[in-house]
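Moderator note: this is an archived Q&A kept for reference. The question asked for a predicted structure of one protein chain; the sequence and the answer are reproduced below.
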Amino acid sequence: MALSRVCWARAALWGSAVPPGLYVVRRLQFVRSGLTWGAPRSSKLHLSPKADVKSLISYVVTKTKVINGKYHRFLGRHFPRFYVLYTIFMKGLQMLWADAKKARRIKTNMWKHNIKFHQLPYREMEHLRQVCTKDRPEVHGEFRRDVTKCLFLGILSIPPFANYLVFLLMYLFPRQLLIQHFWTPKQQIDFLDIYHALRKQSHPAILCCLEKVVPLISDAGLQWHMTELCTKMQRGIHPAVHDILALRECFSNHPLGMDQLRALQMKALSRAMLLTPYLPSVLLRHRLKTHTTVIHQLDKALAKLGVGQLTAQEVKSACYLRGLNSTHIAEERCRTWLGEWLQISCSLKETELSLLLHNVVLLSINYVGSRR
């Protein structure tokens, strides 16, 4: 009785008075049809395969970031010293990749617009000098040596469990095996001091060669200027710009022209430029010419830009390239020294670039704060 009342009430709500028996039959038919044909379709729209892939990728990226953040916090709490090295390594990879991308962009722009190396702005020229592109392999390029180090370490880590040995070697010999992108700030200062100490070892030999060529100079006035300059160098006096420019004629032809330099002189000058001296004389002369020409082109571009437009790091890097150990010298003094260098460089012709090459020693050896 109660069941029939419920059935009549539901039927009334549906708008028709159906007997209870018919309702039960219809209900059973509906249930059977549902069992036969499956559940009703969802009202949600199915995403396309591309959308599914994108959502999956975004999910994986989000989860990776979360896991990476937890991993960083774990290293920072439990292994703080290792975390510092790990952070420097990851930042180094990012900087290395950014340098490669920037070099490729510059080279592509040069190819599209038919621009030569010496026509580039200063910062792009300096970046390509560091990267050392294929068309100028003889140029002193830090990036090319860095890639060689990376390939060497990659080959060493190929055998099973050899990566642990590579990490140990990198920890024990960071200057020899790590590239500059992975140096700590303290290591950058220490290693630059070591490299400058290596090139300082060639300074006495270069000054000795200048003293020996004094009798070979035909002009008496130039002989006197050269003697005075060597005397000032020995007394620790920083020469003035006009003292150096007065000797430009001696460095354009015999005995100090680029083509008249002897093997011992070229080896000493190569050490002063942080270039390998263990090459035949022909290759040494070619590398010195190329390297000095690139610096001369950089100087012209820098003169157009202006020293005042450079950042503190750019100023110190430019001074270090030109022979001055700028790591322990104040920024303003570095700018002053760089201005003197540009005054000399922009006054020289291509035939007088031997003077610019020797200027790496003449202008830097006695500068205030550089004798360490």
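Archived answer notes: Residues 1-46, 133-141 have pLDDT under 50 and may be disordered.
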